[in-house]
Specification:
two-stranded antiparallel sheet; 7 helices; mainly alpha; 313 residues; f41 fragment of flagellin, N-terminal domain
Length: 313
């Protein structure tokens, strides 16, 4: 078969174009570190890469939820730790108050300190993680100016007696956060169950009132009343410890999930690298091979293009 010079030139130019494209491909891979720039470069690898990236994005969302839940629970744990100290101090004052050596002055001083403990307990009950109340259940936000989930209110009875009590205005349900597909974890117990059910505030208020009243007319009754409050404080303390233990268990669970997600994240990053990231040594080797072929083809093309009828005369 006879080939025309035009056909020969066209073939040489096509070869040079293909080699140029190949060199550009490997040069781009070396420069970017990626195996492909367009879907058509490696459709199979691209499909895998998209799947890995989707899984990584999902893990990132779950990890963010875990960080959010962990922060919330750690804040609640800190508040419960503070309440434990409040109850323990109140119990110390109660034990002192039940001692016969105390007088009206010392009991009033204890009552004043208890008044401060009540305010501290109220502040701890209204602890916030960011702008969210940790003991407000499914209503962690959305309060009017000056309004809080736990508030100390005073009522004046018909006989003129002032009665104090803490009321709960938070959510009636618990607060959950999703941290995995189809899974959620309890992060915020509603305040009614978490604190109010423990008799926390009423026990503190009753103890303060007992010490402040200083029942000198019937010291024995006063001691009995104080002993009653001590028993109530023991129950409150047990409740707080149980709540704190439950929070700790949930924190441990989140820590486990966080580590599992991190391991899975690292595996996916490795898999993504295998399908996306270029092997530099291989790319450089192929680039050099293509460059050598290009130079040889260019030399051949130059020699062929230099042919003319003069060469055959």
């Amino acid at each position: 078969m006879r080939l025309s010079m035009r056909t020969l030139y066209g073939g040489l130019l096509t070869d040079l174009e293909h080699l140029t494209e190949s060199m550009y491909k490997y040069q781009t891979q070396i420069a970017t570190g990626k195996k492909f720039q367009r879907p058509s470069d490696a459709p199979v690898e691209l499909n895998y890469a998209l799947g890995y990236r989707k899984a990584l994005a999902e893990i990132d969302r779950y990890q963010e939820s875990i960080r959010e839940a962990t922060s919330f629970l750690k804040t609640a744990e800190g508040a419960l730790k503070g309440l434990k100290k409040v109850i323990e101090r109140a119990k110390e004052l109660a034990l002192k108050g039940a001692n016969d050596i105390q007088n009206a002055s010392t009991r009033k001083a204890m009552a004043a300190e208890l008044d401060g403990l009540i305010q501290e307990a109220l502040s701890l009950a209204n602890t916030q993680d960011g702008d969210r109340y940790v003991f407000a259940g499914n209503r962690p936000t959305g309060y009017q100016e000056g309004e809080k989930p736990f508030e100390l209110v005073k009522k004046v009875l018909p006989d003129g007696q002032v009665v104090e009590q803490v009321v709960y205005k938070g959510g009636a349900e618990n607060l959950y956060l999703g941290y995995a597909r189809g899974s959620k974890i309890l992060v915020g117990r509603n305040g009614e169950e978490a604190l109010m059910a423990s008799d926390l505030f009423s026990a503190l208020i009753a103890l303060r009132n007992t010490l402040a009243n200083d029942n000198v007319a019937d010291p024995r009754q006063e001691v009995e009343d104080i002993q009653t409050q001590i028993g109530r404080l023991d129950k409150v303390l047990n409740h707080i410890l149980e709540e704190r233990s439950a929070v700790g268990t949930r924190l441990d669970h989140l820590e486990l999930k966080k580590n599992l997600y991190q391991d899975f994240h690292d595996i996916l990053i490795g898999n993504l690298g295998e399908v996306e990231e270029v092997d530099y040594l291989e790319a450089v080797t192929k680039l050099n091979a293509k460059r050598t072929a290009y130079e040889a083809a260019l030399k051949a093309a130059t020699q062929t293009m230099g042919l003319s009828l003069v060469n055959f005369l």
